[in-house]
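Researcher: Please generate the 3D structure of the following complex. Treat every line as part of one assembly.
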Amino acid sequence: MTSLMPQPARRRRLLASAMTVPAFLAALGMCAVESWRLVRPQSPLFAAPFVYSLADAIERNDVEHAHAFLRAGQDPNRPIAVRHAVLTGGQSVLVSPLVWAVATGSRDTLLMLLGFGARFDQTGADTALCLADALGDNEIAGLLTLYGSPSPGRECHALQPGRAPLLSLPL
Amino acid sequence: MAGAKVEPTRAHLWTAVVFALATPFTFILCLTLWRTPFPLTEAVAIFENVTNTATEVWTPQTSYYRPLFYLTVSTIWHNAGSLDARLAWLTLVQVVAVILLVVLFIVHLRPRTFIDAAAATCAVAVLVGSPGFRDNLELPLSYTTVGMPLVLIVWILLNRQPRVWDAPLIVALTLIAIGFKEQGLVIVPMAVAAWWMRAPGATRGVTATLAAIAIAYLLFRLLYWRADFPVFEQAIGLGFREMEVPEATARFGAFPYFVYAYNAGATIASLLFAEPARGVFRIIEAWSQGRAQAWQLLHVGSSIGLTGVIAWWGLHSLRASGGRSPESRVFVTLVVVLLACGALSFNYSRERLAGMAIVFYALAASYALRAAAARMLEASPRRFAAAAVGMLIIATAWQTRALATIEYARATALRNHREWLVMLPERRAEFAERPAYLGIMDSMIEQGTDPAAPRPTRYPAWVAFTIGQP
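Model: Done. Output below.
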């Protein structure tokens, strides 16, 4: 048995290797991942899935991609074409990005739009708040009350039964 | 090992190997910090503060007192030309402190053999993989990140033969560390422990001077203490839940000392056992409910394992040398600094508050792993095999934790970026009466919303669960 025992020098190397190999692999792994990041920055390992339009980004509450569209020059107040099975009854409708954020309950994107130049006019602010109320989204309604400047005595039209919310309200 | 004769060239070679293994991590972390946007929530208020009240940094206005940090920020803010230059200099303070800490740590260990280098490599991972290091990387809050290399420099000076300039340098570094954050005070009990353990540079004069500085500092703080300072400055953790300040004050405000002791103990335990975090036993709770994740077990397991090895080595070295060897000095200093960090975190427990003790925990890890390896050289084959597997597991776990530090820094960068995207309306409403705040905030929007900000790597779920990706 004694003759099969590793010599102290060999044991020393083994123990040292046991402690060093993970560090070597970690360093190698880091270098590999960072090199890949340089070569393929759009790889799924580093970049979020592509978003085709501001409307899509808002619907997903993808605040970074939504901001990227504004940064690229898209006007945050220009109406966008949206289509949704429930909210628009499958029809294509033109709405402002802010109203679309309210309709889809995209809290972060709504705040981003308000922070980067999107504005309601008085009617728009009232309608957006009515929409949030009608959809039962108290959080969005609270944000609109704080930052959207709705008029205190606004009157909301009731949603028409069986009709999509964005087709029911005067947008 | 001790007593082994090593050619100088080979000694340099092993030090170079440790540097080579630490370089990718350090480079990637520093690059991540360099590209990280400053947060909206903390940074703008600090910059507004130094813009409005630059001359009042020396007078304690609240329970927090970090005059040299504010002086540094103020100096940069008022003297660097453009906003980009100001922010770059402030980031540089953080980055240089990180580089200095890692470089000094390796130079101080100066591995001379393969096994020294292996233990030092693990120790570097312990240093940078600990929450006490990770949680101090936020911009521009460089309080403890600056203090960590300073405490290491003072330790190095205390442990070498004294030179003429050592005493004034130790005093100056201590004052800087304390001026950046109260945690710098741990240098004083550290020096007392070093003097008691007969460290060559810890002369009676240096120790007495540092003790006098600590007493003067405490008297100064008491002079400006006000009865209306809150009993609890921040939310506290207790058991399995966190309590906000109003609730904690209502429940424990009349007699907060039990909670203060709990907070101190929680900070110490978080360093030694990775639990509790912020005073809350989250991992134990998750484990008892059958929802513990791999990273949680990895953190607790690696910390318990390493702390066990350190305790064995420390007690053994104390017994063997009668408390007079350099290694036993590290162990006693670790205990003293840890207690000091705990005491300084009495008001609320956070992992970052153990930052100054991490340096000594990592130093102790290096010596302990080296001693454990030496002990195993003569063990039976079965014990040797078990020890080798144990060391492999501990090393792998801590390297994983070091990797997680980089992902944590990236997640912080993304969180800062999102703050700028989402919080502007709220801030504009809340700070409508503070034009300086709004002016600084508006000027920083571009850096905050730059899409080039670092983002966490989108690892597969099993990797994310293992490293504990935030």
